Amino acid sequence: MGAPEGEAEVVLDVNSLLFGRTVRGIIEGDSIADVFIPQLIELYRQGRFLFDMLISFYDLADINQAAADSESGKVIKPVLRMPAL
What we know:
Shape: extended
Radius of gyration: 17 Å
Low-confidence stretches: none
Helix content: 25-40%
Mean pLDDT: 88
Order of helices and strands: HEHE
Number of helices: 2
Distance between the termini: 35 Å
Largest sheet: 2 strands, parallel
Strand order of the largest sheet: 1-2
Structural class: alpha+beta
């Protein structure tokens, strides 16, 4: 997941394309949210989509740490918590 810098090249074993497999580029999920989100929720309920392992929470005051952890790969999806008003 993610987008490489510059003009990145992809190398793959052509045998991985056998039996009808394809390689496809997508932007921002390329899905229909009304269909995809309920499917993800159902997978989560079944224990087959471990969403909790993908996110880490940070207080807004720790925004720089959240960015650093994301850039280093320590965190997949940092989620900022806004202070209560």
